[in-house]
């Protein structure tokens, strides 16, 4: 840990993690300067709170004052496209992530969950597996609270489950989880990274400081990820949706099984007993179970949690049934791969609401699945033209002006026995504050819908 007393620290970006990082630094004796591109009015009363702790601010843009810092904490949501920030990155001033800062204070054992898809569901399930077993546990990072907000309350025997994005892993130096979990690697965030390789490298930073005294849970049946497995310095625990004779957890022949390091097989539960919908959630469940193996959680407790865990908000979340049509909110779907698995989760005909802000990814590989699963696609946002071109001829396609228009069209055209699914496959920032805001708006509109029989629109 770096000695913080009287250190000059610049925090760039004053959103959730920037606020928590600045507060932690100030309480521990650092001289904190926060640089934020947006106006101050968006950050009250939190800005005034930190001013009372001696923190200095600049709002409305970044100045050369950031170069006076001994080191910098860069918030994950700040893209380094500003010329001054590019210059800072190329300077000798150390730059760390909020996750790295939190690690300096953390006394508990960390389980770090990353990957392109499934992070939130898996991290939440891991947290609940430990909590239900009686362990004092915390869930933070890219989900829930920032790591630096909770870290001073973490005890030595606590379990800390962190959901970690590629942005959060970019600027680590000493951060090292006791158990790392990498769920998968698929192309994403190509609006921010110059190549798929650079994006993958950011994810794989989670291995940077692990050693033979730590563990890594790795998906065996993901060729993109397996290609890098020999880089992993930790003890490996594998998972997959097929059988491998390797130490790990596998879903095959209708059940989830643990294969121990001597080759003995123990059944955890039947796949049909999982409440989680969709084949992709078999991977998530296997990974979550695998992360508990180094801690020896009682299998009965693990089994009970898996049988009741129904998932998280905004991830294939059932909203309502109206006129025989089921509405599902999958606003967490922000890339083509997550959209793929959402579509695979249903046997019913789907009316799909998709679109938003394109992240430079390719939607054409979904065309065959859209043809098989989607009766009607209603497209929204800046990516709607790209999606129409990618799926031309696969299904009927309509454009909608906004979420209200999309939901009303879906409701009007849906037949009993069909599913209306919001699974955008894109970022939300062209129309909403974030994916949570997008999902909330969708759910509010759906809940206000009236039966076609009442309104006479059938």
CATH class of the largest domain: Alpha Beta
Q: State Rg.
A: 23 Å
Q: Kindly estimate the percentage of residues that lie in beta strands according to DSSP.
A: 15-25%
Helical/strand content category: alpha/beta
The average pLDDT score comes to: 95
Major β-sheet profile: 9 strands, mixed
Q: Enter the CATH topology name of the largest domain.
A: UDP-N-acetylmuramoyl-L-alanine:D-glutamate ligase
Strands, total number? 20
- What is the straight-line distance between the termini? 66 Å
The CATH superfamily title of the largest domain: Mur-like, catalytic domain
Instruction: Please tell me the total number of domains.
Output: 3
Categorize the overall geometry: globular
The amount of helix comes to: 25-40%
In DSSP terms (H or I, runs of 4 or more residues), the helix count works out at 17
Outline the structure in words.
With 458 residues, the protein is of the alpha/beta class. It folds into 3 domains: 8-96, Rossmann fold (3-Layer(aba) Sandwich), CATH 3.40.50.720; 99-308, Mur-like, catalytic domain (UDP-N-acetylmuramoyl-L-alanine:D-glutamate ligase), CATH 3.40.1190; 317-449, Protein-Tyrosine Phosphatase, Chain A, CATH 3.90.190.20. It has 17 helices and 20 strands. It has helices at 16-27, 46-51, 83-89, 98-105, 119-132, 147-150, 166-169, 196-204, 223-226, 280-292, 299-308, 336-344, 367-373, 384-391, 403-413, 435-448, 452-455, and strands at residues 8-12, 31-36, 56-59, 71-74, 95-96, 109-114, 137-141, 159-163, 179-182, 215-219, 235-240, 248-252, 255-259, 265-270, 317-322, 325-329, 350-355, 374-380, 396-399, 419-422. The strands form 3 sheets. A 9-stranded mixed β-sheet has the order 7-8-6-9-10-11-12-13-14, with helices on one face. The N and C termini lie far apart (66 Å).
